[in-house]
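Support request from a user on the community tier.

User writes: "When I paste my structure tokens into the form, the page sometimes reloads and wipes my input. The last time it worked, I copied everything first. Here is what I submitted, just in case something in the input itself triggers the reload:"
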């Protein structure tokens, strides 16, 4: 998994609350077990009409938000089913950070497993950032310092955010669940050696 330390980019305002995982990635695109190729279907039913034409009023289809790497969403983002395809599609689209007042627990944890930083801020601040995203060219996010900085009316602004230390460490070091396990390979090996000596039958060996 790619390490996350600092991010500088424009933000997409998504002024919708209770965005569920079926809105993020509709069920018809869940046939794959690959993490790539899902970005084009992100928010598919919001981005396209029944004839497959882009809906110009939807933020992701607007030119000023092209190549944005930050999504500023409403409360309870990622609710609904626990499909991990949701963060897969977000990451594949190029979004590396989500800012919202709250998230569904499973989606929130899945973000960290896929290199996405989900930041929690109060509703008033999130609304302010959504409104500012039209005029602010870049938001700078520093995970180590736990802050968001940007220029507003030629004045530098800074907003701090909280994050679980263990989840922060995993993002900084680029560790998903498999990476965390591989960090303990030596300890696991020593445990297995001791266990095999104590109960060899568990490993298919005869008692000595």
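"...and here is what came back when it finally went through:"
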């Amino acid at each position: 998994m790619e390490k996350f330390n600092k991010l500088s980019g424009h933000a997409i305002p998504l002024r919708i609350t209770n965005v569920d995982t079926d809105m993020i990635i509709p069920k018809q695109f869940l046939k794959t077990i690959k993490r790539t190729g899902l970005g084009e279907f992100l928010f598919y039913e919001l981005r396209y009409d029944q004839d497959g034409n882009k809906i110009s009023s939807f933020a992701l289809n607007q030119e000023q938000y092209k190549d944005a790497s930050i999504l500023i969403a409403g409360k309870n983002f990622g609710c609904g089913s626990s499909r991990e395809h949701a963060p897969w599609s977000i990451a594949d689209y190029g979004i590396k950070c989500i800012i919202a007042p709250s998230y569904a627990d499973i989606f929130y944890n899945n973000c960290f497993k896929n290199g996405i930083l989900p930041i929690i801020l109060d509703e008033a601040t999130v609304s302010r950032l959504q409104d500012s995203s039209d005029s602010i060219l870049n938001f700078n996010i520093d995970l180590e310092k736990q802050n968001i900085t940007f220029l507003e009316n030629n004045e530098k602004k800074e907003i701090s955010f909280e994050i679980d230390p263990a989840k922060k460490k995993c993002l900084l070091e680029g560790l998903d669940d498999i990476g965390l396990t591989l960090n303990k390979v030596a300890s696991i090996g020593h445990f297995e050696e001791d266990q095999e000596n104590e109960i060899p039958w568990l490993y298919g060996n005869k008692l000595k």
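Agent notes: The reload is a front-end session timeout and is unrelated to the input. Strands lie at 6-9, 11-13, 70-72, 97-100, 117-120, 139-142, 147-152, 155-160. Helices lie at 21-24, 44-47, 85-93, 105-113, 123-132, 165-173, 177-182, 185-198. Escalated to web team.
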